[in-house]
Design a protein that fits this description.
- The complex is a heterodimer of chains A (92) and B (499).
- By secondary structure, chain A is α+β, with helices and mostly antiparallel strands.
- Helices cover 20% and strands 9% of the residues of chain A.
- With 499 residues, chain B is of the alpha/beta class.
- In chain B, strand 4, helix 4 and strand 5 form a beta-alpha-beta unit.
- The two termini of chain B are 33 Å apart.
- The chains are: A alpha+beta (92), B alpha/beta (499).
- At the A-B interface, helix 1 and helix 2 of A face loops of B.
- Bound molecules: iron/sulfur cluster (3 copies).
- The site of one iron/sulfur cluster has 10 residues of chain B, from strand 3.
């Protein structure tokens, strides 16, 4: 099992220095987690470090492919609100 | 009768709310430290340049006014950068800029994230610069969470100034500003997060002050969230020895994708900002010329020469450190000599009313009301800028007693580009919003279209005083309005201003 970084990551560097297993790769277009190296922080920390500091919702998936920080969980912006605002901006 | 024009001593381009007065209460040692720092001394920003390098993208907290999509080339505001540098690249860039712009005195690291959240990159940059360019002062901005643990190390380099962003001292207020922090390897939310952050900020402030480092406190004014509370913040940080408090307006446009932007939190009006700055002023220095620069800004305040110094342009430059430092010393000594020279006497300071009077006005039943006027100037004390080119306006209050500099209002905070962030139209609207409360705008020239829109918004454009000294022109316009009977007494005016 391993965590995964997907599209949407803004390459902010917050996660990389925290990873106890040096599993995070500063790749382009976005950072990646080496699945063989990631331990899900087991034995080191109670919470997965990358997902605990990542500021972008939905870009880190756990071993089951579920976003650790689902929409709305970090920013407090309700997803409907975000969608509505995006539509509004696009329509301008 | 003489119309007194306050030129608040010390500023070469007249009428700047000068540091000389406001920082007068500070000990000599501190004044020496801020004398040539463009961000800390209002006077210095006319003479000296600064630059920021973006080496620190990570952050350990979340603010509701921030999002981490930090590379929009069309935005000019804190947190926005177009090029992220490694410490080595940053050092190279600083040396190149400091060789090309000898007025450069200050290098700051201000993000785009929190420079102390990922301290290796920030400290490595400082370490190299302290060694290679010892004449450049270093400063850093932080949210304060990691600060207390790093004070000792920061003090090893040429760090004389630290800016801490403190938006609250009450965790209940904090919970409305910070959704989470990363602390002791966990994400912590809500009031508890705010409590820890506040404690750490205060601890950092105290430690820095104890070490003799100058601390400036930045606060973001968020209407309905911390507006009243900021007076308390100002009291507390001042009591603990912060030497300058800088209250900045919230920037919250939906297109920036921040919580506040998307949830409809409004930005303060310019009038609200000024009122709060006044309320916080007390006997503490307040900063009113902050431009909320990008985290990779280069040059004089309000200007951005970053494009001249991109990595590809500086890569192959050979820099002669010693020669560059020598040149800086010479240029800066010249600047100081000019600043020390006695100021022009009464000419700029007193405008004889007789000289601008036309028809003697009818005696007025009551005191004519004061008027706020905005001025487009490039900074030399004269009205010399095209309305459409102004990125900031200087605001003056004219009354029968005097002409007083109130502050600077920027219009370039939200967007400077046109393709993604709206049209010239929106830009004009932003300008009009920034001029809220002003009844006239004095500029060198102005286009036909903005002219009409300004008039419709109740602001009279005036291009008749191009290239004249600001205070004299403002006084002249005021006089003209007075003579024309446009200045109803105070009672009637407040109605109009609030309308
Ligand atoms: S879950 Fe832990 S081990 Fe895996 S990448 Fe994230 S920080 Fe590294
Ligand atoms: S913290 Fe999140 S956004 Fe930042 S680099 Fe890591 S995965 Fe990407
Ligand atoms: S501290 Fe700075 S970078 Fe971090 S969330 Fe707040 S504004 Fe953004």
């Amino acid at each position: 099992m391993a965590f995964k970084i997907i599209e949407g990551c803004v390459n902010c560097w917050a996660c990389a220095p925290l990873c106890p297993s040096q599993a995070i790769v500063a790749a382009k277009p976005h950072f990646l987690i080496d699945a063989h190296t990631c331990t899900e922080c087991a034995g080191d920390y109670a919470d997965p470090q990358c997902a605990s500091i990542c500021p972008v919702e939905g870009v880190i998936l756990d071993g089951l492919g579920v976003p650790v920080n689902p929409p709305g969980s970090l920013t407090g912006i309700p997803p409907e609100r975000l969608a509505a605002a995006r539509a509004e901006i696009r329509a301008r | 009768m003489e119309l007194k024009v306050q030129t608040q001593g010390g500023c070469a381009s007249s009428g700047c709310g000068s540091s000389a007065d406001r920082l007068a209460h500070l000990p000599e040692a501190i004044r020496a430290k801020v004398n040539n720092h463009p961000c800390f001394s209002e006077d210095a920003h006319h003479h000296y340049a600064r630059m920021h390098v973006a080496v620190a993208p990570a952050c350990n907290i979340q603010c509701h006014y921030c999002n981490r999509k930090y590379d929009c080339a069309n935005e000019s505001r804190p947190g926005v950068v177009s090029e992220l540098l490694t410490p080595d690249q940053a050092v190279k860039k600083v040396l190149a800029v400091a060789a090309a712009i000898p007025q450069m005195t200050v290098l700051g690291i201000a993000g785009p994230g929190d420079p102390l959240a990922n301290p290796e990159r920030t400290l490595e940059t400082f370490r190299q610069l302290a060694e290679k360019a010892p004449d450049i002062r270093l400063c850093v901005s932080t949210n304060g969470l990691a600060l207390p643990d790093l004070v000792d190390e920061l003090c090893q380099y040429n760090i004389e100034h630290v800016t801490i962003t403190i938006n609250c001292v009450d965790p209940d207020v904090g919970a409305k500003i910070y959704p989470w922090i990363f602390w002791n390897n966990r994400r912590i939310k809500g009031r508890k997060a705010a409590e820890i952050l506040i404690r750490r900020q205060q601890e950092g402030l105290e430690k820095l002050v104890a070490r003799g480092v100058l601390v400036k406190v930045n606060s973001v004014l968020i209407p309905g969230v911390n507006d009243e509370h900021l007076k308390e913040v100002s009291r507390v940080v001042k009591a603990k020895g912060a030497f300058l408090h800088n209250v900045m307006p919230l920037i919250a446009e939906p297109e920036h994708g921040t919580f506040y932007g998307l949830m409809g939190q409004r930005s303060p009006t310019s009038a609200e900002l000024t009122a709060l700055q006044d309320a916080c002023a007390g006997d503490m220095a307040m900063m009113r010329h902050c431009r909320q620069c990008r985290a990779d800004a280069v040059g004089m305040l309000g200007e951005d020469r970053g494009q001249e110094f991109t990595l590809d342009k500086i890569e192959h430059l050979e820099i002669d450190y010693a020669a560059a430092m020598q040149k800086r010393a010479e240029v800066q000594a010249e600047i100081e000599a000019r600043r020390a020279a006695p100021h022009q006497p009464a000419k700029a300071a007193f405008v004889s009313l007789a000289s601008i009077e036309r028809v003697r006005p009818q005696p007025k039943p009551a005191e004519p009301r004061p008027v706020l006027m905005a001025v487009a100037t490039t900074g030399g004390g004269v009205i010399d800028q095209h309305f459409g080119h102004a990125r900031a306006f200087r605001i003056y209050e004219a009354s029968v007693q005097d002409v007083r500099f109130i502050g600077t209002r920027q219009v370039d905070l939200y967007c400077t580009g046109s393709d993604t962030c709206g049209e010239a139209e929106t830009r004009l609207e932003q300008t009009i919003r920034a001029l809220d409360g002003c009844e006239a705008v004095l500029c060198a020239r102005i286009g036909y279209e903005p002219w009409g829109k300004l008039e419709a918004a109740g602001i009279t454009p005036n291009g008749e005083h191009a290239l004249e000294p600001i205070e004299e022109a403002v006084a002249a316009v005021y006089r003209e309005w007075l003579d024309a009977g446009r200045l109803a007494p105070v009672a009637a005016a407040s109605e109009r201003l609030s309308a």
